[in-house]
Structure formats: structure tokens, C-alpha cells
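Entry 14. Ran structure prediction on the chain below.
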Amino acid sequence: MAALYSTTSLADNASDSESEGLQEVIVTASHREVSAQNLPISITAVTGADLSKLGIEDMADLARSMAGVHYTDKGPFSGVNGANLIIRGLNSETTSGLPAAASPVVPPVATYLDDTPLFFNLRLLDLDHVEILRGPQGTLYGSGSLGGTVKFLENRPDPNAFDAKVEASLSGTRHTSSPNGDVKGMLNIPFGDTFAVRLNGGWSHDAGFINQPNLYVLDSSGAPVAAQPGNLFSPPVKYSRQGVNSYEYRSARIAALWKPSEDLQALLSYHYQRDTANGFPYVATSRAAYNQPINPAGQPPGNFTNPPLAAQLYDSPVPAGVDSLSSAEYSADTTHDNVDLASLTVSYDMGFATLTSATAWAHHVNTTRADETQEYINFPFFQSLYGQDPRTYILGLESLDDRPLTQELRLRSRTGGVVDWLAGLFYNDQKTTIQEHDFYPGYLDFYNSCAPTYGQSAGDGVTPSYCGLGETAYTANPLTYINGVPIIKDQAYIGDFETHFKDVAVFGELTGHITSAWSVTGGTRVFKQTLQQQQQTGLLFDGPAYVANSSLSASWRRALWKVNTAYQLDKTNLVYATWSQGFRRGGVNALPQNEIGGTYTTPAGLTQLQPDKADNYEIGFKGTLQDRIRYSAAVFDIQWHNIQEGVQVTPLVLPAAINIGNGYSRGVETEIEALVTRHLSADISYTYDKTKLTAINPLFVFPNVTAPPPALGTPLPGTPKSSAAVTFEYGHVELLGGELRYSISAHYQSKVLPALSATVPIVPGYTMLDTRLSFARSHWTTTLFVNNLTDNLGITSYQDPAIFGNRAQAIVSQPRTIGLTVGYSLKEH
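Output, C-alpha cells:
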């Protein structure tokens, strides 16, 4: 990865005229301040200076800058879906998902902002550095650090000097009609020698590049407007919009550092971020999304001539203006994602050891509106239960409300002795609500007009009908509640997960220095976790038999272990071997016992989600050669047991999570940083990762799950076998009293499976190129950049046709973007 640069040179004997030398990055992955190159684990560290230099502003940019870290970029929709971030192949979730639909499964990679565990789409502003820890990190980072851990370390207030920075960017993206803009700034204010405050903030706007030529005109109630008022089977009125998926990001942070002595310091900080999007980066994969049945096999038999099959399902003309960046959805998906995070970290050096207390509270709220029509009209029972309304439109209202409170106490011994040790206590109290409420605006009015002429459906889920079943609550015996679930007009579905999770853990690591070159480390984490969940699930149109409202609970007591041994070959090169474990908590599913008129009985095993665990075996090498080449390489084999996946289960396609089986991930990861000359440097990383599903849970079959499961031996989703990242930089070129620097970066990934399904298409491999030309003089820096230089349509994921039929869409990357950035820093370059 480009960027192992900081301010502390390892090149004590290097000539300034020949090279600046390789630079250290001090990391805290082991809860000690250690050079990344001296830490016997697989870790990539990137300084904040290099994040800025390479134009890296979010997790998507960061993942593209290195191999072996995979991220499905969905803009502001990325903040609630754990499958967005994958390390070492440990993922089972679909990478496409529904817009911002939160999964009840904990993400497979733990993410930390300083000492606070929280997953969201963080904007990378004013960071000291980022640490990417590869492989299970269960002993120090607990539940969720299955494939790895990513730590974002923010710059601390500095009592020693006043400082300020400001930067602004303007750019244009192909296939958009407005410019992109970005402004960010930082202010550091010291108050004496012991206290300082640091503020930073940013605003960013990305213009939309997805067109939607198939949008429905909606009335004041949200129902589609009929082209012929009064005609029951009139088609909808449509219109077109360009550039729907525009994004906006706002973030701010204030931090105060009090350091009355060298032994005591306290850091209080508050972080705020608000992300919004006016559309999702979906594109239709074929013109069949506009003019063919959703799923021909799912169409009803018989001669429907009065009226014919609904227009939105058959022979609808292809709208004008459809191209490779067009979506067939009937409305634009929107999201608002808010994060508030407050933390207090106090550290005291007691001489023999340092005591650290890290307290954090966060509130993460996401609300999303999504068009889910294509999923509904592909249900095999749709024609029976919902009829032939030609203006079918399903609005999904999805939300996440997450409130974690964490407290960690750590006692870390002083280094330099025969034995180093670390001991800690961890407590997490987390309340999370995930909701999906689906509405069919206008359906009751359609049914009330239709039923007197064509009658009510048989409701068996098989026999087609003109009018459907109607809404049970509004027919013969009006209901206000079904099994405790409130009934609202035109609400077709409810799926709520209300979870209260507690985690209490004791953890520690002990390192013995057998000789000056050989060390052995052992670690453990012993914990108790409890989970209480209330779940409301059901198709509300269809009566009490289709609605479940129940409370379940579960608890786990476990111990995780780690053993590491390292040998220092010489002053700058070492070899290590590690066995480590990762763990994710389990869960519960509240599901109806019977469905589809009693023709399906829910297996009891689907109601319990067991924890999953990973065992990691790893051998690595890392070091520095002649102070001009820095390398690291690791060979790993991870056995994954009781794999969890968030899936849609039962014939009614209800959200849940199940254990799908066992698998493995095996591979090689390498990184090389080379100073070729004083002017030319190169950073090259490559990862080969072979994943496989080795055992399948007998419950992981259709119709227990909606999409047909994959064959044994199928790769795990979201991870290509090969990925590579290369950055060449030519810099330190003196010009007009300043310095010129040019860089070009490439990211490659091979083909990838986007979901564990027998029917989902393979995502083809692709390569992306970015380039930057910068000129720095005195306090100013100007950068001309081009992202996606070749304007490659990089498809990153596909929806599954088994669920979405011919309207299964693809997620695509941003087209070529050309821009200019100007920055001013109070400190000279």
C-alpha cells in the first residue's frame, strides 16, 4: 500500500540527496505504540498525510488502494450493510442487498474510530493514520473481528502549536449534469502547555450519474397516478429524471486534550456525520427490465383477456434514453444516515504499567425509502394474493436505530523486560432496532373498485386473480391489530428486529522474550454474551396466520485463544507464525409456524442462529532491505465454522439469519514498497484468496430460503481469487520554487461471486486507473486528478434473478471524474 511514510526516518545512514529513506508508521493495534514493521502480524498502516496525498476520502477509496480488502461502494447507503467490507474472504452475505437494509448479522470485520467499535461509512478527514489488521483478532477486539479489524486513528489536539488547514475541490463526472464539490478544514488551538482543542469539518457533494427513465408520477398519498382517471386497469403516468444518485456528506468533530503531566492525559471528543443520497447506484442489466415479464415461469396460467396481464409485467415499451447507466426502478431510493459519537479516553502511567479507560456512546440512525416493486411482483404467489393492478408500486421504508455504550479498561505493562503483558475488561450494552415496512400505495382503493366485478382471490397463493386478496383488516371484520402488530392502510409487510445485546469480557495477552530475537505470545478472551430479541414479521394483508410477534433470548459463554511466535532474523527482518480465533455472536428468528394456507411449516431449526467461529493459521515474513525496499508476506488458512448469513427465508420471503454450513479461506498476501530512486517510488500489493463452502446445513435449501442455495464447493461471495494494487509516484521535482509530484494508481480484481446462490451471475473482473499531478509551494498545494481514467464501467455486484427476475440490477462504480483541488496549510510543506 502506498504510504508507509511518517516523520521518523529509519534511514539513519541514507544520503538526503539520494533518498528520504523509508519511514515508520507507529500503530496501536496491540494497544501499544509500536512500529507497524516490527509488529509480528499482518497489518497495513496508512498515514493521514498519504490519505490526503492520494485523495482517499472514504472506505471505498481506501479499499481500492490495496489488495485483499474488498468493499462494495454504495455511497451513503453503505453505512448499515456489513457485507460492504470484506477481509480475507470471510463473508457470506450478498454484496448487493437492498438499499440500506440492515442485516441482523454482525459485520465480519470490526471497525473502530479510535477506541470505539462502530460500523458506519466514515469520511476519512483529519486522520493520523489507518490500521488494517488482517485475520481474526478475537482476543483483543472481541465479537465481530472475524476477518479482521480496521482502526481509524484521528489526529489529537496539539498543545504545542496553533495550526490550521483548508482545502477545496471541484470536479466533473461523466454522465452527470452538475459538478462535484468538496470543502474541508481543520483548526488546532492550544490553551497553554497542557490543554488544546482541535476542530475539523467537511462538506462533500457528488453529482448523480444514474438516470431513471421509468419513474411513476405519484399523487399526494404516494399512489401511482393513472393515465386514464376512472379506468381501473389504466397504466401509470411515467416520467424521466437524470442523475438521481447524488450524494451529500457533512461531518464535524471537536476534541479536547488535557495533559497536566507526562503521566496523565484525557481526551474528550464528539464526532458527527450526516450522509444523504437521492438514488442508489443500480443499473438495469438488460432491456428486458423494461419490456418483459419479471419471471415468465411465475406468470399465472389461463387466458387473462378481460383485463389482460398487468402492463408493468408484460410488453411495456422501452423508455427513450435508456443506456448502460439507467435504472428501471419506479421511484428513486433515498437515504439519510446520521451518526453521533462521544468518547472519553483517560490514560495514566503508573510506572510499572499504564492504565487506560475508554468510554464511548454512539447513536447511529438510518432511514431509507426504496422501491421494492421488482421483488414483490416476482413472488410466485403475487398474482394470487395481489391481483392485476397495472400500477403496482411497493414502497419500502427501512430504518436502523443503533445505540451502543462501551467501556473498556486496559492495564499495559512497561516494555523492555523479559515479559510484557496486557490485561483488560470490556463491557458493551447495545440496543438496536432494524425495521422494514413495505407499503402498496393505492391497493385498497384498487381492490374495492375491482372486487364487485371480478371477485376476491381464492388466497391460496397459487390460483391467479384480477383483484387479489384485499387487505384483511379492511374487509368484513376490520382489525386494528394482528397479533399485537398495528394495522395501517396499504401496509403490506412488517419486519422489525428489536435487539438488546450485552457483552462482558476479560481479555489479556502475555509475551515472553525467550531470547533477544525470539518471542512467544499467548492471548485469550473469556466472555459472556446475552441477547434478547423481539421480532414482528408478517404479510399484513393476509391475516393472523401470516403474522408473528414473539420474543426470544439466548446467551453464550466462550473463550477465544491466540498463540504467536516471532523470530527477529536481523535488525530489520522477522518471521512469525500465528494461530488465532474470531467469533460472532448468535441470534434468534421469530417466524410464523405455518404459511401459504398451511402448505408450509417452518422448521424449528430456523428460529435459532448459533455463533460462528474462525480458526486462523498464518505464517508471515516482513522486513526492510537496504533501507530502500520494505516488504511483507503472509500465507494463511482460515477454517470457518457454523457460517452465519442474513437471508430471506420461507415462501413468504421473510428476513432472518441462519447458519448455512462451513467453509475456508486460504491465500497469500504480499506488499512491497520500494524507493527506486530519489524521485521514483513504487507500492505494489497482491492477494490470492481461495474460498470455498465445504459443508451445507440441511436447512439451507429451497423453500426454507428464497434463492436456490449454491453447490458444495462454491466460493464465498464478495472475494476475488486475485486482487492487486499498484502505485507509482515520481516526485521531489523542484519547479518554480516548489515541488512537483505525479502518481498513477491501478486496482485490479478478478471475477467474483456476489451472493451464495445457484442463480446469481458472476461479476466480471476489472481494472481501475487513477492519476494525480500535484504542485506544492510554501503553504499551498494544487492537485489535478483523474479518477477512473479509462472510464471503465466497473460492475461491483449483481442482484439475484431468483428474487428479482428480469429486473435484477447491478451496482456500478463512478464514471471518469476530472477535478482540481487547492489546499492551504498554516505550516509550510
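Residues 1-19 have pLDDT under 50 and may be disordered. Will compare against last week's run tomorrow.
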